[in-house]
Amino acid sequence: MSNFRFKQFEVEQNNVPMKLGTDGVLIGAWADCSRANTILDIGTGTGVIALMMAQRSKAERVVGIDIDSCAAACADLNFKNSPWSSRLVSKHTSVQDFTEDRFDFIISNPPYFTNSLLCDNSRKSAARHTVELSFQALNDSVLRLLSSTGSFALILPAEQMDIFEQITPLSLCRRCRVYSYPGGEVKRVMAQFIRNGSLLSDESITIYTAPKGDYSEQYRELTKDFYLKF
User: Fold this and answer.
1) pLDDT tens digit string along 123-132?
2) 0.85 exceeded by the pTM?
3) Which one of 45, 81, 98, 188 has the largest count of C-beta atoms within 10 Å of its C-beta?
């Protein structure tokens, strides 16, 4: 069965190149979208992050875009079946070709493999590797689409986040280092940027209590509004 049930919505993920994963749920639960009236999710996939944005905010318009036609269609179905269907829109387009008005908040769980071998599945390669969306192209698109007072949030492995921070002229205002378990290496970094400002919040979160252990209280608290089991 390809459906995944959350507390307030359900995600169908049949025929999408990348299935639902922890990264999307993490950034969707962590990012601060509280002041946004318009939200853009770049590389929406199943639409899970856009759905989480709709649940967590009062935004009047939440747009999810994806270069993969099947993913955009899947997100559209999930949006229409959600409690926030009137506020959610799915569009089949690359962010480079997307020309809508500027957004108060932009979020992304972008492709990040830069030097690894491409897989045989071209759709999965586009979703995982920076072939169709380099960090520079992502940065340029965000600068073009972000409002003057807006913010941009994304999740990346630590090394790739360092690369993105060197590219972007945006100012880091929030950061959260993600560990799989206590004493482990940083698995991911979540970051939120604004056009001008300084770092206001530097956090960390651990997903499990130990290798192969139970979910930590931190992770349960962050995601409790979404997962049925918490």
Assistant:
1) 444 444 445 7
2) yes
3) 45
